[in-house]
TrEMBL record:
Protein name, per record: Tetratricopeptide repeat-containing protein
The keyword Cell membrane appears for this protein: no
Keyword Ribonucleoprotein: no
Keywords associated with the record: Membrane, Transmembrane, Transmembrane helix
Bias (Pro residues) ranges: 134-149
Organism, as annotated: Nannocystis exedens
Transmembrane stretches, start-end: 157-181, 242-265
Location of the region described as Disordered in the Swiss-Prot/TrEMBL record: 129-154
Length: 297
C-alpha cells in the first residue's frame, strides 16, 4: 500500500497535462482531468473502487497521461481481489503493461518500470492459477468386441441342408422309380403273360421274323404282332432304364441324408463344446492352507 500511495501522488503531478510527444490528443469535450483524477483518488481511498476506476479512466482519456495507467491497473487489481472476476485481472494487466511500455519509451516521465514488474509477475501467476485446466479430449471408445461365433452353427446348417435335399431326392427317386418299375412290369406281362404277344405269335403260326412264319400264316397279322412286340420291348427297356436311374437318384439322396446327419451331429457337438468353454468353470479344491478356487474364469 505504501508503493501505491507514492505512485498515486506521483501520477497526480502529471495528470493535468499530456505527455510530451504523445500522438493522442486529449478530447476537446473533457472535464478538468486534474479534478477527475483527484476525485478518483478520494474514491480509491474510501474503497469506492469502481467509481475510482471510472474517474481514473476518464482522467486518462482527457489527459493522455500514461502515468495514470498505474492507478488504473492497481484499482482493477484491488477490484479483482474483492470480486474474483478474471476479466478484472486481465484489465489490470493491460493497464500496467501499457504503463511500463510508456515509461520505458519516455524516461523523462521519471518512473521506474522495474517497480511495476513484480506486480505484473504476481498478476501473471494469478492468471495462470485461475486458468481452467485444459480438458483432454475423451478417448474414443474401443470398438465393440465381435460377437462370439458358434463354430458348430455352419455345420449344423450344412447338415440340415443336406438332409433336406437328400430327403427330397430320395422321395422323388423312389416314387418315380416305383412308377416306371410298375410300368415295366405291365409291359412285361403284355409280352410274356397269358394271351400276350408271344402267345398270339405262337397261336398265329408267326415267328419272330417273317421267314420263320408257318405255312398258311397271315403275313399281315404276323407283321403287326412283330411290330407291337418291338414297341413293347423298347418301351419296357426305357421304363426299366428310368426306374434304375431314379433308383440311383434315391440312393444318392439317401447318401446325402446320412452325410447331413453326420454333419449335423458334428456341428451340434462342436456347439456344445463351445458353449461349455464360454461358461466359467470353477472347482473348489481343499488344500493344507484352506480352499482354493481352480478353473477358468
Amino acid at each position: 500500500m505504501l508503493r501505491l500511495t507514492l505512485h498515486l501522488v506521483f501520477a497526480a503531478n502529471f495528470a493535468v497535462s499530456p505527455v510530451a510527444g504523445s500522438k493522442d490528443k486529449p478530447a476537446s469535450n473533457c472535464r478538468n482531468p486534474s479534478a477527475l483524477y483527484e476525485e478518483g483518488l478520494k474514491d480509491y481511498d474510501q474503497k469506492f473502487t469502481k467509481a475510482a476506476i471510472e474517474k481514473f479512466e476518464a482522467a486518462h482519456k482527457c489527459s493522455k497521461n500514461p502515468l495514470i495507467l498505474y492507478n488504473i491497473g492497481l484499482a482493477y487489481k484491488r477490484l479483482y481481489d474483492a470480486e474474483q472476476q478474471p476479466d478484472l485481472l486481465h484489465a489490470a494487466k493491460k493497464a500496467l503493461v501499457e504503463y511500463v511500455d510508456a515509461i520505458e519509451k519516455d524516461p523523462a516521465l521519471g518512473a521506474d518500470p522495474e517497480e511495476v514488474k513484480p506486480v505484473l509477475a504476481e498478476i501473471d501467476a494469478e492468471i495462470e492459477r485461475i486458468r481452467p485446466p485444459e480438458v483432454a479430449p475423451e478417448p474414443e471408445p474401443p470398438p465393440p468386441a465381435p460377437d462370439p461365433v458358434d463354430p458348430g452353427k455352419s455345420r449344423r446348417l450344412l447338415g440340415i441342408g443336406l438332409m433336406s435335399g437328400g430327403g427330397a431326392l430320395t422321395v422323388v427317386g423312389v416314387a418315380v422309380s416305383a412308377a416306371f418299375a410298375s410300368k415295366g412290369a405291365r409291359l412285361h406281362d403284355q409280352l410274356n403273360g397269358a394271351g400276350g404277344i408271344y402267345d398270339q405269335l405262337e397261336a398265329g403260326g408267326c415267328g419272330l421274323a417273317q421267314p420263320e412264319d408257318a405255312p398258311g400264316a397271315d403275313t399281315m397279322t404276323c407283321d403287326a404282332l412283330r411290330g407291337e412286340r418291338q414297341d413293347l420291348k423298347a418301351d419296357g427297356a426305357r421304363a426299366n432304364g428310368v426306374a434304375f436311374g431314379m433308383m440311383a437318384v434315391g440312393v444318392v439322396g439317401l447318401g446325402l441324408i446320412i452325410g447331413g446327419a453326420v454333419a449335423f451331429a458334428q456341428g451340434k457337438r462342436a456347439t456344445a463344446e463351445w458353449e461349455s468353454s464360454q461358461r466359467a468353470r470353477v472347482r473348489v479344491l481343499p488344500t493344507m492352507g484352506g480352499l482354493v478356487l481352480q478353473g477358468r474364469f
